[in-house]
Sequence to fold (683 residues):
Amino acid sequence: MDLSSIRSQISDLDARLLSLLREREEAVRQVLEAKDQEGRPLRDSTREEDMLEELIRKGRELGLEGHYVTRIFQEIIDHSLRTQQRLLQDKVNPRGAPVRRVAFQGQEGAYSHLAACKHFASHGEEVSIQGYGTLDEVLEAVSEGAADFGILPVENTFAGSINEVYDLLNRTDLAVVGEEVLEIQSSLVALEDVPLSRIRRIYSHPMALNQCTRFLARMPHVQREYYADTALAMQKIRDDQDLSQAAIGPEEAARIYGLKVLERNISDQAETYTRFLVVAKEPVQVDPRVPARTSLILSVPSRPGSLLKALHVFHDHNVNLTKLESRPKPGSPFDYLFYVDFEGNIASEHIQEMLDQLRSVTGYLKVLGSYPSEMRPRTTPSTRAFLQAGAAEVQVPSNGNGSAAANKTAPKKKPKSYRLASRETKAEDTVIHVQGVEIGGPEFVMMAGPCSVENRDQILACARHVKESGGHVLRGGCFKPRTSPYSFQGLGYEGLELLVEAGRTYGLPVITEVLTTEDVRPVAEYADILQIGARNMQNFSLLKECGKVDRPVMLKRGLSASIEEFLNAAEYILAQGNHQVILCERGIRTFETHTRNTLDLGAIPLLKQMTHLPIVVDPSHAAGKRDLVMPLALAAHAVGPHGMIVEIHPEPEKALSDGPQALLFPMFTDLMRQIYGGQTQPA
Ligand code: PEP
Ligand code: MN
Fold:
């Protein structure tokens, strides 16, 4: 077959996919009607998980990767929830005029415009979206009835709150009736596909330029100019017809202005989102089955403890605060207004009662409105699902983490040297959250990957295998502590880029070792967990530097460190302010030489008594030999650590470091099955 006929076959398949998606959407509408009549809740997370697990199983039978199926269906399920949420909302808030007029600040192609398109997408043709010069004008348009809705950016996950909007919200009488979350993807665009070296000037919104500092650092001779919005910058590029000019902004806008993308995804941070609020003249009712969020503004008297009193009201009502922002109070220097978002619906009695109590402890309280929440947690399949999608009867074995109260044998005397790490200071287990993975909680966490990141194919293959076997975290050394200076020292930042790319491709957080204090901050910007290796356990300046970043740190036990020394090393990190420390038992040096190290299994239950910090075990560096890794791993799992880190490699005989101890891929899958109890054949 020639290329063009294969392409037309692909187009036909895509057209079929589209019509199936359309049919599915229709079925979703009917499901909602049925749910509505039976008074069923909108979300049934057990059913969603089962559904996803079944899809992974069926996908695998067809030869599709579990991760691929998961990603596609997460999007489909989310869309279905979004559709049902909208339909329910339309029932509770019957609309008046057929056309909805939406006001945003900026011009066509600006992020606010894209957010408005996304938010009102389900209303199809019946929406007219109109740009205004300023945010004030947007609010005015809604107040005066020239528009039914206004959309305002309130926060960006990179730059933080957009203060101007918070101040406007206090002045306006409009109600908040919705929110939208838009992923910000920045691209460098120009008139034509010219080489980067020809670009002399780059235009964009200040926030967009600030988000791309690393990319821009590669173009030191380029002049940067601020524009009021990214679309305006693109319009200038189009109008000037000057090939030496470029703009930064969304690809969708580039399409509108007929520009070419020179480089995609140029932000410093891989994922950046902007959250928008939708305002209208009248508040909306949120159906009780739709998860709601509420925004309000309050001030408290300037007295000790008054803010705490107000916050206590939320706690007493078991209400989750999702945002707390302070803004200067106009006309009263050093007095503040607090902007609060929380999960809950003002129509519910429970929230009404909470607000009444809140009124009694605040000087000022203005409810901006309740609206359907757009931050829906994604359905995620369990580890078991990956190993054996469908077999619900198999229980994931508990790793035996008792509650703190179970640790009766903890030493009585308060150890002074490691105060913060001690159970005496903090009785409950520390649980560390990394991109949806909980380390230190009830689920046993598996981290796996190669000793060293060697090349793109190698790390991608490892990531894929870790994910498809149900693993949770991807490991990969980029800066390697080698006994000999002539051995492979790692790919450094180049390796880190590959590791992060592989982790992101398969939705796995990544862990990597840092060797020097200078590398801590830059590595922490990319890696999800920092590792301090055994050889550096008492590198106190490294420990301190890791204590200054807000990133989990996995500290490996030194080759000849006592448990006391191990905990004191952790204390160095904790004492600097970083409380997210994971301990790792990886074997210690004894007189025995047949194994690389001696895995000190007793240390694990002992550490669990002495400290609240999560403990993981590394059987790979203890064993040193592949064949010993599996039995040691199973034994280690039995003594109750919170997780494990193992080395794997697609071709261990070619590995640049620690090949002899790397598990072959099938061995790793086997280990996963033995630990998580799966029996069936994964992909
Ligand atoms: C590693 O995890 O690659 C490593 C070097 O481990 P350790 O510090 O335990 O030797
Ligand atoms: Mn290693």
The two ends are 30 Å apart (CA to CA). The chain has four domains: 21-92, 186-263, 291-376, 410-675. The chain has a mean pLDDT of 91. The first strand starts at residue 100 and ends at 105.
